[in-house]
Amino acid sequence: MATAQVERQKRKLKERLAQIRGDRSQRKFARDLGVFQQNVNRYENGTTPHTDFLITLAMKEGISIDWLLLGKGKMRRGR
Questions:
Q1: Beta strands in the chain (DSSP E)
Q2: If you placed Cys at 24, which of 15, 29, 31, 49 could pair as Cys (CB 3.0 to 4.6 Å)?
Q3: Considering the domain boundaries, does residue 75 fall inside one?
Q4: pLDDT tens digits, 3-53
Q5: What 3-state class would DSSP assign to 15?
Q6: What are phi and psi of 76, to 5 degrees?
Q7: Residue 79 confidence (pLDDT) above 60
Q8: What range does the domain containing 51 cover?
Q9: Can you tell me whether residue 1 is helix, strand or coil?
Q10: CB 32 within 8 A of CB 17
Q11: What is the domain-level CATH number for residue 9?
């Protein structure tokens, strides 16, 4: 995959994270996931999330990893 495509997906990742969070505050969202609010803030501002965070998010929120990382398929697993 070309570098430009990777960068484009990384930019869209922060938008998908905000979409998953929805109306919850970053603090509430972080609490729901068992992570620090500062991490959620950094990830929504473009820092690439750690693998542990992505796996936790996918498991606790029922999110498809393909959708989360690449925008492919349905947002929620099994729906």
A1: none
A2: 29
A3: no
A4: 999 889 989 999 999 999 999 999 999 999 999 999 999 999 999 999 999
A5: helix
A6: -95, 140
A7: no
A8: 3-70
A9: coil
A10: no
A11: 1.10.260.40
